[in-house]
Amino acid sequence: MLKSAKDSTFHLGLALLVGLGLLLSPVDTHASSRIKDIVTFEGVRDNMLVGYGLVVGLNGTGDGLADGHFTKQSLLSMLERLGVKSTEDGLDSKNVAAVMVTASLKPFARQGSRLDVTVSALGDADSLLGGTLLVTPLIGADGEVYAVAQGQLAVGGFSAAGAAETITKGVPTSGRIASGAIIERELNFEMAQMDDVKLSLRNPDFTTARRISQAINAFLGSSSSRPTDPGTVQLDIPDSYDGNVVNLLTDIEQLRVDPDQMARVVIDETTGTIVMGENVRISTVAIAQGSLTIRITETPQVSQPGPFAQTGTTTTVDRTAIEADEGKDKKMTVLDDGVSLQELVNGLNALGIGPRDLITILQAIKSAGALQAEIEVM
What CATH number does the domain containing 236 carry? Predict the structure, then answer.
């Protein structure tokens, strides 16, 4: 295999990719995963909450309260509810900002427990640093209030500006409040009364679904579970676990199975990242890679008459250098039928190509019908 110094970074990345592929090979006893890591259980899920509120106490970095601005309307409405009668002419502050508050309601969270919330500016505020969120109801998809948020914001970014320069670090218009919301309403879901439970695979696959079902049946000594589709395994509650679904799920979630996966090549063209599964196979194909590179360099030079010369003027003379690289040192390589991931990487390394050229080559191999894998472009 031919190697060059310019490919050292690419070789290192592909070596790491091959190493990861070998570590994740199914023949490795450590490749098995717990059922709890590859499935989600019916009813055990988060629920998204959202609310609209006001942040006060900003140091002149809040919203501009122009005529008809929604922040001004919200501020007037809040003051009226608090018994303060104000006019629009009296509101000219830059210390208030309208924000959206988001949180995730964890499964089986009980009334009185707390949630972390994220606060993001909605208007034209420059920074939320030093602000305090006022009482904000958080509603779910059904329009009901499930939590109430309030507290001091923790902002990771900042912004500073002078007459000629501005510096910004992070995102100063977004912050978090740790344990900033109190749950006021619970989601009613009783697992003890369930007659069956559905297990949803995070990566749907026929083989993985059947292996999960077989592992559960072997543990229970019955045919209580069965795959209904590539993404779902249905588990009927055995009589020995009647009314005690929690213990059943606790027992089966520790069982180990070997998840299967499709042969897939994932490409992120924005960053030039390529991830290939260990099941990727290549039919016999010949590959040549080359490119034409033209480099034009402009080096203007100044021409002027000699000392004490009676004639002549100072002028600029253009100097242009053109170089053309036709990729003559590129070679062709042949990949035999059914090569593995490591053989594919070694063969493409022999061409001395970079990640972005590799993306084009993989897509061309797929178009030729020689890549036995699915290409997913992010």
Answer: 3.30.1360
Task: Tell how strand 256-257 and strand 33-34 pair up.
Answer: antiparallel
Structure tokens at 357: 């050229």
Helical packing angle, 8-23 and 341-349, nearest 10°: 170
Q: Sign of torsion, CA 371 372 373 374?
A: positive
Q: Are residues 272 and 224 part of one domain?
A: no
Locate 237 and state its tokens. Answer: 């509650």
- 155 and 227 housed in the same domain: no
Q: What is the DSSP letter of 71?
A: H
Output the tens digit of pLDDT for each of the chain's 378 residues: 334 444 444 444 444 344 444 344 443 444 689 999 999 998 888 999 999 999 999 988 888 887 667 888 888 888 888 888 877 666 778 899 999 999 999 988 899 999 999 999 998 888 999 999 999 999 999 999 999 999 999 998 777 777 677 777 788 999 999 999 999 998 888 887 888 999 999 999 999 999 999 999 999 999 999 999 999 999 999 988 888 899 999 999 999 999 988 888 888 877 777 787 777 777 777 766 665 455 667 677 777 777 766 676 777 777 777 665 555 555 555 555 556 656 666 666 666 666 777 777 778 878 888 777 888 887
Residue with tokens 């305090």: 132
Question: Rounded to 5 degrees, what angle do the CA atoms 127, 131, 137 make?
Answer: 110
Overall domain count for the chain: 3
Asked if residue 216 and residue 174 are part of one domain, the reply reads no
Contact 115, 106 (CB under 8 A): yes
271 phi and psi angles, rounded to 5 deg: -105, -10
**Domain shared by 58 and 74, yes or no:** yes
Domain containing 125: what range?
A: 47-183
What is the distance between the terminal CA atoms of the chain, rounded to a whole angstrom?
31
User: Residues 69, 168: one domain?
Assistant: yes
